[in-house]
Write a structure and sequence with these properties.
The complex is a heterodimer. By secondary structure, chain A is an alpha+beta fold. Chain A has a single domain, classed as Alpha-Beta Plaits (2-Layer Sandwich), CATH 3.30.70. Helices cover 19% and strands 25% of the residues of chain A. Chain A contains six helices and ten strands, in the order E-H-E-E-H-E-E-H-E-E-H-H-E-H-E-E. In chain A, the strands form four sheets. In chain A, strands 8-1-10-9 form a four-stranded mixed β-sheet. In chain A, a hairpin with a 5-residue loop joins strand 6 (105-106) and strand 7. The longest helix of chain A has 9 residues, at 17-25. The two termini of chain A are 25 Å apart. The relative contact order of chain A is 0.26. Chain B is mainly α. Chain B has one domain (25-308): Formate dehydrogenase/DMSO reductase fold. Chain B contains twelve helices and one strand. Chain B has helices spanning 25-48, 56-61, 65-80, 99-120, 122-125, 134-145, 147-170, 183-202, 206-235, 239-246, 254-277, 286-308; one strand at residues 2-6. In chain B, helix 1 (25-48) runs antiparallel to helix 3 (65-80) and helix 3 packs antiparallel against helix 4. The longest helix of chain B is centred in the C-terminal third of the chain and has 30 residues, at 206-235. Classes of the chains: A alpha+beta, B mainly alpha. Chains A and B meet through strand 2, helix 3 and strand 6 of A and strand 1 and helix 4 of B. Bound molecules: iron/sulfur cluster (2 copies). One iron/sulfur cluster binds next to helix 3 of chain A. The site of one iron/sulfur cluster (SF4) has 15 residues of chain A, from helix 3.
Chain lengths: 177, 313
């Protein structure tokens, strides 16, 4: 099993619903967020291109954050979901330094926090909160090993990219372009 | 032109706009670790070579500072932790893949070794010292008997510790400035040089100081060579590496790095040490103090600048 997410950058309008849904669902402290939206403008006027990306932890297959954790607090759950066990984390910050995507932050309570792909919901057969609320239905979540899952179908006939593949972490967020 | 904006208003403390999760604690920890590694290495080195009596400051006196530096370093590391109550979790697992993990274990081994080393010279340093308990006296006799073996172990661990202070940073692929294998040897050499500087400062024996100054000059020379090499490597690298180098070649760290670390922390003390070897009078404390401040600045700058560098996408 390999959980992954596809983000349709052509459909995303940058409304930020996914960000608010995550903050609510996961009780993210004020001023912090586990997902965010990047607006990327490329080119020179008048030939400009615009891209919206809803970004979060890439749940990398080759995750440096898990490798550099001295206590094993950062670990890989079923389906490749990368999470942090709060009461094992000493807050050393190594994993934050190791993430090429700056997807982790230090929670005011001391431990390190990040996107969990809403593991608690996924285990109940539900979708992550961000996927559930997206009004344009541009987020697709599921098991890449299952050819009929939402995410497999979403990337099947589309061009996609991953961010900073040269960082070598084998990220699992697929941006449909 | 490419412009990327967080339209959802991301402004997480210590992450945005630049990563800055490691503050003063980590560079201080790296500095103290390198310093202790340098002192312990040379204490071991001259013991193994049977020169303990010709090099009293190196072998007997300066090592007192090593356990102090190591304990302070560990304390700085502890202060860096944001979830302090769970500190002990560091020592419930051995994770060789994590530099932070094996580094803290290395410290756990070399710190007691340094205490034992100092303890074995207590009687020579403080006349009339006695251990009060018979078992301690017997332990001391044992240590003195096997001092050369201990010196070997200490030298090896000193090298591991010295290299570790660089590898802790170089293992982070995500930070292009750190992600170079030169950082290990560079931090090792720089750490040993700060150790030497401390011993030179402490030593009262002209011959000993002369000998150490000569070695220190070699270390400074190698360090300068590695720094040039570092930037050549970056300049020949990918865009991320070039941008990392540019922070120091015209960017915000240019003055602090080249003036304070390279000129005042390396070149100038090297010139002073050379003049001293030629017989000119140079205040004894000046070159060591400059090297120590330079070494400390070096670590502060590398830690801070490294966190700014990142992958571009
Ligand atoms: S995106 Fe960052 S935090 Fe997430 S798995 Fe990859 S390296 Fe780890
Ligand atoms: S901050 Fe916590 S999760 Fe991250 S590397 Fe340190 S112990 Fe592991």
């Amino acid at each position: 099993m390999r959980y992954a997410m596809a983000i349709d950058t052509n459909k995303c309008v940058g409304c930020g619903d996914c960000v608010v849904a995550c903050q609510t669902e996961n009780n993210v402290p004020h001023g912090y967020c586990r997902d965010w939206i990047v607006e990327s403008v490329d080119g020179t006027y008048p030939s400009l291109s615009l891209e919206f990306r809803s970004e979060r932890c890439n749940h990398c297959d080759n995750s440096p954050c898990v490798r550099c954790c001295p206590t094993g607090a950062s670990h890989i759950e079923e389906g490749g979901i990368v999470t942090v066990t709060h009461n094992k984390c000493i807050g050393c910050g190594a994993c934050i330094e190791s993430c090429p995507y700056d997807a982790r932050y230090s929670h005011p309570d001391g431990y390190v926090d990040k996107c969990t792909f809403c593991l608690h919901r996924v285990q109940k057969g539900q979708k992550p909160a961000c996927v559930e609320v997206c009004p344009t239905k541009c987020l697709h979540f599921g098991d890449l090993d299952d050819p009929n899952s939402d995410v497999s179908l979403a990337i099947k006939d589309r061009k996609w990219k991953v961010l900073a593949p040269e960082a070598g972490t084998d990220p699992q967020l697929y941006f449909l372009t | 032109m490419k412009e990327e904006l967080f339209v959802s208003g991301r402004n997480i403390p210590n992450i945005d706009p630049y990563l800055n999760i490691w503050h003063w604690q980590i560079p201080l920890y790296l500095f103290l670790g390198g310093l202790a590694a340098g002192i312990l290495f040379f204490a071991g080195f001259y013991t193994v070579r049977g020169k303990a009596n010709q090099m009293p400051a190196t072998v007997k006196l300066a090592p007192i500072l090593a356990p102090i530096a190591l304990v302070l370093g560990l304390f700085a590391l502890f202060l860096d932790l944001k979830h302090k109550l769970f500190f002990w979790q560091l020592y419930t697992t051995i994770r060789l893949e994590s530099p932070m993990g094996w580094g803290s274990w290395t410290l756990m081994i070399i710190t007691p070794l340094s205490f034992i080393w100092v303890a074995s010279y207590m009687k020579e340093l403080i006349p009339g010292w006695n251990w009060k308990f018979n078992i301690l006296e017997r332990f001391e006799a044992l240590v003195i008997k096997y001092r050369v073996a201990l010196a070997w172990v200490m030298m090896i661990y000193a090298i591991i510790l010295g290299v570790y202070t660089g590898i802790l940073l170089s293992a982070f692929n995500a930070r292009p400035l750190w992600n170079t294998s030169i950082l290990g040897p560079l931090f090792l050499v720089s750490g040993f040089s700060t150790g030497l500087a401390t011993i030179i400062w402490i030593s009262k024996d002209a011959k000993e100081r002369k000998k150490l100054s000569r070695i220190d000059l070699v270390f400074i020379f190698v360090e300068l060579f590695l720094i040039v090499h570092l930037f050549m490597g970056f300049k020949a690298g990918s865009q991320t590496a070039i941008e990392a180098a540019n922070l120091f070649l015209g960017g915000p760290f240019t003055v602090s790095f080249w003036v304070f670390v390279v000129i005042l922390g390396l070149v100038f003390p090297a010139v002073l040490e050379t003049l001293e070897l030629w017989g000119y009078h140079v205040p004894k404390w000046l070159p060591p103090v400059m090297i120590l401040i330079g070494g400390l600045m070096f670590r502060f700058i590398i830690v801070e600048a490294g966190q700014i560098t990142r992958y571009l996408y």
